[in-house]
Design goal:
Length: 135
């Protein structure tokens, strides 16, 4: 029971740090965000941050990888022939609807990462991911 509570606290802390990063990217741009900014805005100490991440680049990479992994999991449910049938019948293809729901849910993260103040390399990373997913 205590382990479950600890795991929930760890997950809440990690989520708080990620949400803080997204807000700060929107405000000042990733290149201007410091670990000090993250810890001040998240109201955690530096030790807590470093318990979860090596630095702001590790945090960014983990955030991007989580996003792409979730997208990959949703895209693996897509089947081209089923999408064609749905299209011909003028009906929604529900696995595709779920992909778009996921993208909508992750909208703030995508906006921050793909925006002018985000990670310039992420758009290329996402393009490569999508290219690989087609195969």
């Amino acid at each position: 029971m205590a382990e479950k509570i600890h795991d929930q606290m760890v997950e809440r802390t990690r989520q708080l740090i990620k949400e803080t990063l997204i807000r700060l990217i929107e405000e000042k741009g990733f290149s201007n965000v410091t670990v000090r900014d993250l810890t001040l805005h998240a109201k955690i100490n530096r030790g807590t941050f470093y318990r979860h991440y090596l630095d702001k680049y590790d945090l960014l990479e983990q955030l991007e990888n989580e996003l792409l992994l979730g997208l990959q999991q949703h895209m693996h449910t897509l089947h081209y022939q089923e999408m064609l049938i749905s299209h011909e019948e003028n009906k929604p293809h529900f696995p595709l609807v779920e992909v778009f729901r996921y993208l909508k849910q992750k909208g703030p993260i995508l906006k921050a990462l793909l925006g002018a103040k985000g990670d310039p390399a992420f758009s290329q990373k996402m393009k490569l991911f999508l290219e690989f997913s087609k195969k």
